[in-house]
Amino acid sequence: MTRSSELFGKIEAALARPGAPSSDFDLNPDTVLPEGRVLRDAAVLILVNNFGDVPTVTLTKRASGLKHHPGQIAFPGGKRDANDASLEAAALREAREEIGLPDRAARIIGTLPSHETVTGFNVTPIVAQLTEAFVPKAELGEVAEVFEVPLAHVINSANFVIEGRRWRGAKRYYYTVPFGPYYIWGATARMLRAFADRLET
Questions:
Q1: By three-state DSSP, how is residue 192 classified?
Q2: pLDDT digits over 13-23, tens only?
Q3: Sign of the C-alpha dihedral, residues 146, 14, 125, 118?
Q4: pLDDT digits (tens, 9 = 90+) for 170-188
Q5: What pLDDT is stored for residue 166 in this prediction?
Q6: Burial (Cβ within 10 Å: 0-12, 13-18, ≥19) of residue 101
Q7: Mapping DSSP to helix (H, G, I), strand (E, B) and coil, where does residue 190 land?
Q8: Would the pTM of this model clear 0.90, i.e. be above it?
C-alpha cells in the first residue's frame, strides 16, 4: 500500500463514521438563537495535498478590502448558487474561482457534518484529495494569498487553543489553531477541529 492510499483510506474510513454537526456557538452554550431562523447553504473544500514532502491542507487569506471577514483565514468555498448541482459542486466551483483549482483535479472523499456560522450559513465541509499538482492562482479582489499548512498540524487536537473576545456586549469563545504567521480561528478552526476529532477517534 502506498503512502497516499494509506492516508486517504484512513480519511475515508473516518468520514464514514457518524458525527454531530458543529456551530460557531459550540463554546458559547448560553447563546440564544432566534426561532425560525433560515440558514443559507454553503460548502467549503478541505483539500488535502499529498504531492510534497508532507501532506498539507490548502487555505486562503481573504483580501483586506472585503466587506465580510477581511484578512481572515478560510477554506476555498462559499454559498451554493442556484446552478450548483450539489454542495460538492458548489465547493469545487468556488475552489476553481478562488484558487484556480483545475476541473477534475480533486477527488471527493466525503463530508463532515454541517457547521452553522454566526453569519447565517449552514456550511458543509467537503473533504477532497488533490489528484493533480497545480500552481494556485488567487482570485484578485477576494483572495490575498493561497497557502498550505501541514495536515498533521491541523488534525492534532493538542494544537487547538480556546480564546475569547468581546462580541455584541458579551464574551465569545472560539477555537484557534495558529500556524506560523497565520492566525486560524473561528469557523475555519472549528471545522478543522471537527476533522481532527474524527481522525483521532
A1: helix
A2: 999 999 999 99
A3: negative
A4: 789 999 999 999 999 999 9
A5: 82
A6: buried
A7: helix
A8: yes
* Spans in the chain with pLDDT lower than 70: 1-2, 65-70
Distances (CA, A) of 151 to 20, 84, 192: 22, 28, 10
CB 39 within 8 A of CB 114: no
Query: What crossing angle do the helices spanning 186-200 and 3-16 adopt, rounded to 10°?
Result: 100
The residue behind cell 499548512 is 149
**129, 50 Cβ separation under 8 angstroms:** yes
- Here the cell at position 98 is 478562488
If you count them, how many residues does the chain have? 201
Q: What angle do CA 73, 121, 88 make, to 5 degrees?
A: 80
Find residue 146's DSSP bridge partners.
Answer: 60
The answer for residues whose C-beta is within 8 angstroms of residue 123's C-beta and 6 or more apart is: 42, 43, 44, 77, 114, 115, 116, 117, 187, 191
